[in-house]
Write a structure and sequence with these properties.
It is built from four helices and eleven strands, in the order βββββαβαβαββββα. The protein is an alpha+beta fold and about 170 residues long. The termini are far apart.
């Protein structure tokens, strides 16, 4: 497998795991919700799924991104679910969501096993954080769009994400 990289403040970081690919069935994973219960991608089958992976909700860019996706989700309808996955503990995610007024984005934690990070190839080696990336999965479970943000201190292209959601039936 080829090594893939992103940067943080211009310094290269190596990604580990199996890179997801457009056109393939979205890999399964198990993460933890705010109630400390396991969640899999199958829990959202039949919906357009937007997965936003972020390094940590307690950073300015991740905070901004998640707030923008929360606002965006209010206009997307019930057939679209937006998941934000990070390595933050579920307790910290719940605290952050309460303080930020996040009520449309579902925050999920990959801290226990890095199941999502490894399955999608976005786990940052050595730091054990997730790279900033967006995956749009159609209701049939096929990956329609992947946006791996090259510099993790930058925001994703929100317009491209919206276009992918609409192409996927959302």
């Amino acid at each position: 497998m080829n090594q893939r990289h992103v940067t943080m403040h211009g310094h290269p970081l190596t990604l580990v795991g199996h890179p997801a690919k457009i056109g393939e069935t979205a890999p399964d994973f198990t993460v933890i919700n705010a109630k400390m219960q396991p969640v899999t991608i199958g829990d959202y089958s039949g919906k357009t799924i937007v997965i936003s992976s972020v390094p940590s909700l307690d950073t300015p860019v991740c905070d901004t991104e998640t707030r923008k996706f929360n606002e965006m989700a209010t206009r997307l309808g019930d057939n679209v679910v937006v998941l934000t996955i990070s390595m933050d503990l579920p307790f910290a995610q719940a605290r952050w969501c309460g303080a930020a007024g996040i009520d449309r984005v579902v925050t999920l934690s990959d801290h226990a096993t890095a199941s999502f990070g490894l399955a999608y190839g976005v786990l940052i080696d050595n730091l054990r954080l997730l790279a900033r990336s967006i995956f749009v999965i159609d209701p049939a479970g096929i990956i329609q769009s992947i946006q791996l943000v090259p510099e993790i201190t930058s925001e994703p292209d929100y317009d491209a994400v919206l276009a992918a959601i609409h192409r996927s039936g959302g």
